[in-house]
Design brief:
Layout (H helix, E strand, L loop, with lengths): L6 H7 L15 H59 L7 H24 L1 H31 L4 H18 L8 H9 L15
Helix pairs in contact: 2-3, 2-4, 2-5, 2-6, 4-5
Length: 204
């Protein structure tokens, strides 16, 4: 007795039955989505590098201003203290002069260690270096996006290059100073993206 519930046996008994072929996805549909995703990830990282580069410029400017705000008064007060001390050499009774000299000496004694402790000049230079490094990394991601647009390479090759870029990004940023939140947000508000990559955002 034939089991008519078995589809294979049914097809054997009725060889003329046409079984519809399985529905397949349009050619290159998956490849297109994967490639767009690769480009979107590279574009996001490029934009982050641009923001970080600008943010460290802002931090560098602030530390440079701090160096001026502390260094100039410290130098001026030290010079005044020296002048006051010289003027007091020939005077025996000058309480007001001694008070001024004491005040200037206290100000100099307070500002000089503060300048040494904060070291704003070195911090400004470190943030300038960080800005240049992030800018260079962003340029590499930009070059990667351009190659993806003009060269139709395999997905594996593009993915491998993106992975190497991400590894380089992770290694190069390790010794760099941290980015303050205020600087990141301010740089983000002024961010300008390259227009050629705006249509390659992944929607998935």
């Amino acid at each position: 007795m034939t089991n008519t519930n078995d589809p294979d046996l049914t097809n054997q008994d009725n060889p003329n039955v046409n079984v519809p072929p399985p529905v397949s996805a349009p050619p290159h549909a998956d490849s297109s989505v994967q490639r767009e995703d690769i480009m979107a990830r590279a574009e996001d990282r490029r934009n982050v590098c641009r923001i970080l580069s600008r943010a460290h410029v802002l931090v560098s400017i602030r530390w440079s201003n701090t160096h001026l705000y502390i260094g100039i008064p410290s130098t001026v007060f030290a010079a005044l203290a020296g002048v006051q001390a010289i003027s007091e050499l020939g005077q025996t009774d000058s309480n007001s002069g001694k008070i001024i000299q004491i005040i200037l000496s206290v100000l100099v004694a307070g500002l000089a260690p503060l300048l040494t402790f904060l070291n704003p000049n070195e911090r400004a230079n470190n943030n300038q270096t960080a800005s240049r490094i992030y800018e260079q990394i962003g340029d590499r991601y930009d070059a990667f996006l351009l190659r993806c647009l003009v060269e139709r390479r395999g997905l594996t090759e593009e993915l491998d290059e993106l992975v190497q870029l991400n590894l380089s990004y992770s290694e190069e940023k390790k010794p760099l100073p941290l980015t303050p939140e205020w600087a990141f947000q301010q740089a983000k508000r002024g961010q300008m993206n390259a227009p050629f990559a705006k249509d390659h955002k992944s929607t998935g």
